[in-house]
Design a protein that fits this description.
The chain is an alpha/beta fold. The chain folds into two domains: 213 residues, Rossmann fold (3-Layer(aba) Sandwich); 147 residues, Rossmann fold. Helix content is 38%, strand content 11%. The chain has twelve helices and eight strands. A four-stranded parallel beta sheet has the order 2-1-3-4, sandwiched between helices. The protein has a four-stranded parallel beta sheet with strand order 6-5-7-8, with helices on both faces. Helix 2 packs across helix 3, helix 5 packs across helix 6 and helix 7 packs antiparallel against helix 12. It is globular and about 60 Å long.
Length: 406
């Protein structure tokens, strides 16, 4: 759907959940290309793709959009509007507009230009999980354009239910809603947390942040680097990464973030202390979530005079970065008398955009695993998600594509 069409046609509800895909063990990987459909962890057979599918979370673009958007995000959880309105106030403080859609438009355009510069003649379609342009409308448009094989890039670098498997479920929903299950095949690039093009902007940011702290009079031993990411339920974290991290506390989700942080600190600021913290918790207070919270971590740093926040869990400076870090965490630091600064997310940093092109090329070329770009102790990650990988704790398997079911 073009931006003009999306502006003229406002739809409040995301596609319904898919019902037509098989979820029994051993089923052929749903909607995948021939090279991936029998579920090899890494695909080293070249595939000719027709287009790239850039998939975002979505966000409201006006005050009237806020509650419908949040209903989409929380669908099936029975959360009343009164509680949603508490979160809505974060969006309303910005005029009801999330920056994430404009950021993804910018990323889409940068990716198109970078693909063309690399000699890859692939159009880029952008669709959201929770707001316009919805994925089913975008897939219907792609089918009309003659697209049959797509390589999908979710705007999330790590393994967890909300950052990987839920994208795959929503692609299945969208294919069914658009009636394109037997028309369009969708593969997914690997989780890209370990790609140097994703990590390099954080390396640069930490170097600059440490220099700024030192320039403000803070000695290296008085600086704490807080790598932050979205908190998730502990039970979901345990299931992230499938059998590679079976039973490991925090699962692949925590392990991947720690691996990135370790690399960044070794490259940018060896000797400076750091920790992994979490933010943006939601849900029942009785449900255990990954901790510590970034604000609690700041308060506990009585022997530090400066804090550098590094949002390694995020691709762009969307609302949870602007509100939870730039507003709430900053206020916490100011109350504690602690100097604070934040590193930018990758956004459209050239190395990040080039990394996305490289992820597409490695699948198009069928690149060997040993030849893939990777800078952390973990990786390169799987092309085809493994059985049970990133399942929702306590939930029945839902139809999902680009992975081995259930």
């Amino acid at each position: 759907m073009t931006d003009a069409h999306a502006a003229a046609f406002r739809r409040e509800t995301k596609p319904p959940q898919a019902r037509g895909l098989h979820v029994e063990p051993g089923a052929v990987v749903a909607a995948a290309t021939a090279a991936a459909q029998h579920g090899p962890p890494h695909v080293t057979e070249p595939v000719t793709y027709d287009a790239v599918l850039l998939s975002g979370f979505g966000g409201p673009e006006g005050q009237d959009d806020v509650l419908p958007f949040l209903r989409n995000v929380t669908r099936g959880r029975g959360i009343p509007d009164e509680r949603l309105e508490e979160v809505a106030q974060h969006y309303r403080a910005f005029g009801g507009v999330s920056p994430i859609n404009d950021q993804n438009r910018e990323l889409r355009d940068a990716l198109r230009a970078a693909l063309a510069a690399a000699g890859l003649d692939l159009p880029v379609y952008w669709g959201n999980r929770n707001w316009e342009p919805y994925l089913d409308d975008v897939l219907a448009e792609a089918a009309r354009d003659g697209v049959r094989r797509m390589i999908a890039i979710p705007t999330s670098a790590y393994s967890s239910y909300s950052s990987c498997r839920q994208y795959r479920e929503d692609w299945a929903d969208a294919l069914e809603a658009a009636e394109q299950q037997d028309v369009i095949q969708i593969d997914k690039v690997r989780q890209f947390f370990s790609h140097p093009g994703f990590v390099q902007p954080f390396v640069e940011g930490v170097r600059d942040g440490i220099a700024a702290a030192e320039g403000a009079g803070h000695r290296p031993e008085a600086i704490e680097v807080l790598f932050t990411t979205h908190s998730i339920p502990s039970a979901d974290a345990m299931l992230s990464g499938g059998d590679a991290f079976d039973g490991v506390s925090g699962g692949a989700y925590e392990a991947q973030h720690r691996a990135v942080a370790e690399y960044v600190m070794a490259a940018a600021a060896p000797g400076v202390t750091w920790q992994l913290v979490y933010q943006s918790r939601s849900g029942s207070p009785s449900t255990p979530w990954l901790e510590p919270d970034v604000n609690d971590a700041i308060i506990s740093l009585s022997d530090r005079t400066a804090v550098l926040i590094v949002p390694i869990g995020f691709v762009s400076d969307h609302l949870e970065v602007l509100w939870d870090l730039d507003r709430e965490a900053r206020e916490t630091a100011e109350r504690a008398g602690t100097w604070i600064t934040r590193v930018a997310t990758p956004g459209v940093h050239p190395t990040f955009v080039d990394a996305l092109v490289d992820l597409v090329r490695e699948r198009a070329d069928g690149r060997a695993v040993t030849a893939r770009a990777n800078v952390t102790a973990i990786g390169p990650w799987y092309d085809v998600c493994r059985p049970g990988c990133c399942a929702k704790a306590g939930g029945d398997p839902r139809p999902a594509i680009a992975g081995v079911m259930p």
